[in-house]
């Protein structure tokens, strides 16, 4: 059965979507990704959409879900590589994706994840040793 | 407005919907629509196709090139013989859904493709036509 | 009967081509006397001669009632090129159609001379000639209008592009100075230009300056927010600046808000904020003594 590969890069997971997405495939990805975040104890998830030609309301909702689920399991999520035409269409469609972090490309996404991880570990220290 | 070329595609599964999107995209590239236009129209077709699959039990997608006095266009009609829509106005409202979606399918498609026509009769089915002109 | 008819018109043209051309030119020069600034006499002469050189053979071999038959193709193509160039030169549609219509007078005068005795034949020929030239004249108007529409469309596109530049202020910082109103088609162009520039320059910050936007109503605010949202999807943060006091007042009055988008009063404030965002420090050097 078709499956979208999830790669491990250090403490992060990288999902690079290279096929034409359909609903069943996205649902399966959501299951796989949550399982992998737990199994690999990932600190961050990077979803690369640079070859994705459309994001409709279902795919958009699933992106939001995956970000929320990862967050719940202790990993930050960043969506990268959204194409200009796709970004315009998402906005016109009325999707907000407000709870999802975004970056221009994989490089910048990894940098953003590192900042987010640093910030949250600083928060944890602050809570552990209150002044 | 007269159709110059048309084809009818099945719409019974997720894979069929992917096919419909790819065929539509290919025709739009041929006709020279811009990347943004292509993306909007294909996204709208994807929303409507999903509705037909989820709520109409599947149907067909008719893809046709059209021509009126001085412009070329592309038209897609997505049709199912499902339960139909009882309250069209409500169905067009953002955020309303009878299923588990976001309720952006119909309203969103209309925003993406201004040429939008919806016909539905409870018990008979639903037919949505979208078109984009050069 | 038909063969006879074709022969008459063709005959006149073939036999009197030179004289007809002279008469026709005179007609045109009177009709267009005010437009000699747009087209020179030799040019007009050349166009007219070329037209007759195509028209006569078409009359000979083609149908006189159906200008869509292949024999007429060269004539139509030539008329199309004349109409197009006149549309660009600034002729009016009627001045353009005059090119063909003025031939009518010349032709009718010659027909009268040839067939003066035979009233029935004269009426017949006149009718055929009138219908034929009317069709050709209308065709020039049609092409003329289409060309004008194309010119207008192109100018609109050029204006859209002119009025929505995206400039790079600093490594990682773009600015979009908006001038005029922001309707939905302009929003599309702004979004496309901005997003492409974000990709091209790898920028993280985009400053949208609305100093030149005269009013911000609900629709314009919505369009601005769309632009901000689209940029955010590409990983770039937008700062809206240049909100003049009276505009801020109208916005509050209308209940328009930019939500959680960062807004600054001036472009300078926005740039200072952007520098902080990308961890860039600007240092004022001590004044030289």
Structure overview:
- The complex is a heterotrimer of chains A (131), B (134) and C (289).
- With 131 residues, chain A is an alpha/beta fold.
- Chain A has helices spanning 23-40, 57-72, 84-93, 106-128; strands at 6-9, 12-16, 44-48, 76-80, 101-103.
- Chain A has a single domain (6-128), classed as Transcription Regulator spoIIAA, CATH 3.30.750.24.
- In chain A, β4, α3 and β5 form a beta-alpha-beta unit.
- In chain A, 44% of the residues are buried.
- The model of chain A has no long low-confidence stretch (mean pLDDT 92).
- Chain B has 134 residues and is α+β, with helices and mostly antiparallel strands.
- Chain B has helices at 14-31, 35-55, 88-92, 105-112; strands spanning 2-11, 59-68, 71-80, 115-121, 125-133.
- Chain B is built from 4 helices and 5 strands.
- Chain C is α/β, with parallel strands linked by helices.
- Chain C has 2 domains: 2-157, Globins (Globin-like, Orthogonal Bundle), CATH 1.10.490; 167-277, Transcription Regulator spoIIAA (2-Layer Sandwich), CATH 3.30.750.24.
- Chain C has a 5-stranded mixed sheet, sandwiched between helices.
- Chains A and B meet through α1, α2 and α3 of A and α1, α2 and α4 of B.
Any chance you could write out the topology, listing elements then pairs?
The complex is a heterotrimer of chains A (131), B (134) and C (289).
Chain A: E1 6-9, E2 12-16, H1 23-40, E3 44-48, H2 57-72, E4 76-80, H3 84-93, E5 101-103, H4 106-128
Chain B: E1 2-11, H1 14-31, H2 35-55, E2 59-68, E3 71-80, H3 88-92, H4 105-112, E4 115-121, E5 125-133
Chain C: H1 2-15, H2 17-31, H3 41-61, H4 73-89, H5 93-115, H6 119-162, E1 167-170, E2 173-179, H7 184-201, E3 205-212, H8 218-233, E4 237-241, H9 245-254, E5 262-264, H10 267-277
Parallel strand pairs in C: 2-3, 3-4, 4-5
Antiparallel strand pairs in C: 1-2
Helix pairs in contact in C: 1-3, 2-3, 2-5, 3-4, 4-6, 5-6, 7-8
């Amino acid at each position: 059965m078709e499956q979208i590969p999830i790669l491990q890069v250090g403490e992060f997971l990288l999902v690079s979507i290279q096929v034409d997405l359909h609903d069943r495939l996205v649902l399966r990805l959501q299951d796989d990704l949550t399982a992998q975040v737990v199994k690999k104890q990932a600190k961050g998830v990077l979803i690369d959409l640079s070859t994705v030609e459309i994001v409709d309301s279902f795919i958009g909702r699933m992106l939001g879900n995956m970000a929320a689920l990862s967050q719940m399991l202790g990993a930050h999520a960043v969506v990268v590589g959204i194409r200009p035409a796709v970004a315009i269409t998402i906005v016109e469609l009325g999707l907000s994706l407000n709870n999802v972090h975004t970056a221009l490309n994989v490089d910048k996404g990894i940098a953003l994840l590192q900042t987010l991880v640093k910030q949250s570990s600083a928060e944890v220290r602050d809570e552990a040793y209150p002044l | 407005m007269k159709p110059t070329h048309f084809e009818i595609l099945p719409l019974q599964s997720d894979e069929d919907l992917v096919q419909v999107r790819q065929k539509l995209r290919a025709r739009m590239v041929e006709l020279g629509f811009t990347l943004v236009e292509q993306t909007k129209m294909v996204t709208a077709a994807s929303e409507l196709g999903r509705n037909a699959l989820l709520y109409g039990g599947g149907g067909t997608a008719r893809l046709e090139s059209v021509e009126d006095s001085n412009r070329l266009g592309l038209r897609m009609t997505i049709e199912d013989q499902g339960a139909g829509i009882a309250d069209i106005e409500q169905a067009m409202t953002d955020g309303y859904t009878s299923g588990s979606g976001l309720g952006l399918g119909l309203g969103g498609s209309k925003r993406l493709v201004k040429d939008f026509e919806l016909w539905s009769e409870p018990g008979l089915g639903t037919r949505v036509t979208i078109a984009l002109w050069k | 009967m038909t063969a006879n008819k074709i022969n008459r018109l063709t005959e006149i043209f073939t036999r009197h081509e030179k004289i007809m051309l002279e008469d026709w030119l005179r007609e045109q020069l009177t009709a267009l006397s005010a437009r000699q600034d747009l087209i020179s006499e030799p040019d007009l002469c050349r166009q007219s001669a070329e037209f007759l050189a195509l028209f006569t053979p078409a009359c000979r071999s083609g149908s006189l009632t159906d200008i869509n038959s292949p024999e007429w193709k060269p004539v139509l193509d030539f008329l199309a090129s004349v109409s197009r160039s006149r549309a660009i030169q600034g002729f009016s549609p009627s001045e353009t159609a005059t090119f063909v219509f003025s031939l009518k007078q010349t032709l009718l005068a010659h027909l009268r001379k040839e067939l003066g005795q035979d009233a029935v034949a004269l009426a017949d020929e006149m009718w055929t000639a009138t219908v034929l030239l009317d069709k050709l004249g209308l065709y020039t108007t049609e092409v003329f209008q289409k060309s004008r529409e194309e010119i207008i469309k192109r100018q609109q596109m050029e204006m859209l592009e002119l009025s929505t530049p995206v400039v790079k202020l600093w490594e990682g910082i773009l600015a979009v100075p908006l001038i005029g109103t922001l309707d939905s088609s302009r929003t599309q162009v702004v979004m496309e230009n901005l997003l492409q520039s974000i990709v091209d320059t790898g920028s993280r910050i985009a400053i949208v300056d609305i100093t030149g936007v005269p009013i911000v109503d609900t629709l314009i605010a919505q369009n601005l927010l769309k632009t901000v949202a689209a940029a955010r999807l590409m990983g770039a943060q937008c700062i809206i600046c240049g909100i003049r006091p009276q505009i801020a007042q109208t916005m509050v009055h209308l209940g328009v808000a930019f939500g959680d988008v960062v807004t600054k009063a001036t472009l300078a404030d926005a740039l200072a904020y952007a520098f902080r965002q990308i961890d860039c420090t600007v240092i004022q050097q001590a004044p030289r003594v």
